[in-house]
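Feature request, filed as a ticket because there's no other form

It would be nice if the structure record came with a short human-readable summary line next to the tokens. Right now we just get the raw output. Example of a typical job, pasted below so the devs can see what we mean:
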Amino acid sequence: MKSVVKGVLGAFALASLATTALAAETTLTIATVNNGDMIRMQKYTDDFTKANPGIKLNWVTLEENDLRQKVTKDISTKGGQYDVLTIGMYETPIWGKKGWLVPLKGLDDPKDILPAVAGGLSVDGKLFAAPFYGESSFVMYRKDLMAKAGLKMSDAPTWDEIIAAAGKMTDRANGVNGICLRGKAGWGENMAFIGSMANSFGARWFDEKWHPQFDTQEWKDTLNTYLKVMKDSGPAGASGNGFSENLALFQTGKCGMWADATAAASFTIDPKASKVADQVGFTIAPDKGLGKRANWLWAWALAVPAGSKKVDAAEKFISWATSKHYGEMIAAKEGWANVPPGTRTSLYANPEYAKVPFAAMTLASMQAADPLHPTVKPVPYVGVQFASIPEFAGIGTKVGEMFSAALAGQMTADEALKAAQDYTTAEMTKAGYIK
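Raw output as currently delivered:
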């Protein structure tokens, strides 16, 4: 009898060891962007793995354009390389409708997510990605250089005011450019900025019948203004500068102003990383008096690809990374300014967070963006700095290459706009939007 019991116990012990070993082998491969908030998160994942000892994390951290390309290819071909994807408000509703993503369950207080952000990451009321951070765009500027130029930044600047200030702050002999703006090609790089700028100039990607609009005066005014201010007041080699490159320029004191993501704000005032940390001010994105400002709406979010065999583990990780607990942990370790912004109503109701210099302006900028009515004239698409159709990523990137080439002096504004009009018309006709 004893030998039978020993045999049973031995078999049970072996089974338990096998189960433990199997649990330890659950490795989540997470594809993410090389932005500061995501890099910071990787430093604190011990908090997750200690609570979930059966889950290991394997990080694939990529530059923005590379991330989009690799993640899109993997999910569209069902490659299965990744268990957690970092995607945004453009991809989520399109991929959710296609059945490429798992509807998320078990998140920490999903009703607390800002409505505009939750709406952009949902399909038919189901959340398909959880926001790690949300953002709009605004103007970050050097208060000391503004004062030196005898200027005071407006709470609601116009493009004319921003351009004039950029000119007065430019001091290239001392390595200071009046303004830094995205020039690197990509639908989520230079076209995020130029597309939002175009909205404020009265331009639009397509009219109500999906005809491209690059042959209009509004687009001509947008691109010519962008190219001129960059030539007069921007940095050398700007056609290669995206978010990360401009952040580095601003932190090292080489930009008087930088119009970009609100999520960059904490890195501009971090004394460990920014030489100008004590001189940074924030104001809302500029306008042309037409009722629309040049600010976008975006969220970098975490999602699980459909067909994943590690859904439960992936959802546990996503719930942790997007939780109120995670934000409180970052606040305790690195200060409230470094909590991922733009995701939760409760964060903006927190009196401690309200003391952060850019908190109120971030929320105001996000609330000023209207993805359902992004332009002065009516449009058939949803999205502020993008059009929420599957074809947009390819079109936006190609147009971004043309505008980046114009910034590099390889073609004129008129040539770039004609090329954009011709290419986009051909693509929209091929896709069946234009009859």
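Something like this underneath would help us a lot:
The CA atoms of residues 34 and 422 lie 34 Å apart.
The beta strands are 26-33, 55-62, 84-87, 122-123, 126-127, 130-135, 137-142, 257-261, 280-284, 298-303.
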